[in-house]
Amino acid sequence: MCGILGTSSNNSSYECYRGLLAIQHRGQDSAGILSFDGIVHQKKEKGLVLNVFNKEELSKLEGSKAIGHVRYPTAGTNTLCEAQPFFLSYPYGIGLAHNGNITNYQDLKLELEGKHRCIHSKSDTEVMINILSEELMKNDTFEAIKGTMERIDGSYSAVMMLPKKLIAFRDPYGNRPLVFGEKTNLDETAFSFSSESVGLDVNGYSLIRDLLPGEAIVVEDNNAEKRLLCPKGRAHCMFEWVYFSRPDSVIEGKSVYEARMELGRNIEFEEEGDVVIPVPDTARTAALGFSEKYGIKQREGLIKNRYIGRTFIMPTQVSRDVAVRDKLNVIKGEIRGKRVILVDDSIVRGTTSKRIVTMLRDNGAKEVHMISTCPPIKHPCYYGIDMPTEKELIAARNTDDVAEMIGADSVTYQTIKGLVKAIGLKKDELCLACLNGDYPTHIPEETRSSLTKTRECERTGDI
């Protein structure tokens, strides 16, 4: 999962920078911006947006169009050569930033190498930009994107630049989010695309709507042309509402904040407790909904060091463990001698939950009852969320043993019915594959095994 942004205005690079700051939570590994004013300008480095860019760097990124990216590595490694946007000079000069995972990456890579195309990184985005290059040599822009969609499997939202054009497109199932905004200043009509609506808000763009599954929009000369190219259904990732997106974002017309409130209200809880403690920050809204429903006071028992990044999107278990110790501290007076109801957005590997439960017990909690506002995650995600192997997923082994494994007195999970109701979309419009194993695209078993093996090697540093 990453964050992408594209703008077409007289202040594009600065708007791109501000938008990337707003969606920094979507990726902490690297950041990059590419702009065009007849000459391609690009800056990308490992690190956070604030560390990569300064006023001087932004002043060099001239042009009326820009695309940007913040990266969270799930395909490839966490080296600089995987940082985005990518640029390819042939046939016209193509810039591309992508959020998602291409599941047939290896097959496409071998196909391209058989045509003597050199692939310099392990990033699936580099394969995508080469496929786009091939299609652009044969077709106009829309037909080239359609041809690319027909060749690529998996999930993707993308922003792309060609000379004089800013382009956005979304995979045929709309798995990854992408929104479209517009604003008018004096004689200029400007457009922007972002992974989340907050990326539009900070720059004063009005949210028009989400791109449709299989849709492409081409911005040229202050006009936006839209075409539905390759729709196959709807399979929006439920994890955007549960965890990934900012609570002030709106995705598919549904407020993330309201969805999380409902996630808390929809929990069926049978234990007794004295205090509701959220795991900051994503579970805070759901804990409020739970607290209101059951009439149990909510308190801030865990304080987050805001200078530590999101632990879920860190690339290794060691870095996540260290970050949890540095990230959270306990307010002992809110914990000691109490039956604590600990609310978190999800339980994925269980390692973070175990550390937090231990912290609470070490600081005098009488009981710790864990609540997950997400149902049990039992299956790998092949579309861009960092939970690719079943052996890493604590609920895949045995849901009944989770409480014992993390040291809690009880664990209560959200139901799939409660999740769907909270989000407010139809069940068949959501990707629930990590919960029920029902993948919206066909992924051959050989491909699943290859993706799992590759990710395991990346985690251990064997490739």
In short:
This protein has 463 residues and is an alpha+beta fold. The protein has 17 helices and 23 strands.
Describe this structure in words.
The strands form six sheets. A seven-stranded antiparallel β-sheet has the order 3-2-4-1-10-9-11. The longest helix has 16 residues, at 445-460. The mean pLDDT is 92. Helix 9 (256-265) packs across helix 10 (284-294) and helix 11 packs parallel to helix 12 (351-362). The chain has helices spanning 12-22, 49-52, 55-60, 105-114, 124-136, 141-151, 198-201, 239-244, 256-265, 284-294, 317-327, 351-362, 394-397, 402-406, 416-423, 433-436, 445-460, and strands spanning 3-8, 30-36, 40-46, 65-71, 86-88, 94-99, 157-162, 165-170, 179-185, 188-194, 206-210, 215-220, 223-228, 236-237, 250-251, 254-255, 275-278, 302-304, 328-330, 339-344, 367-372, 410-413, 430-431. The two termini are 21 Å apart. It is 32% helix and 24% strand. Strand 20 (339-344), helix 12 and strand 21 (367-372) form a beta-alpha-beta unit. It is of the alpha+beta class. One of its GO terms (molecular function) is 4 iron, 4 sulfur cluster binding.
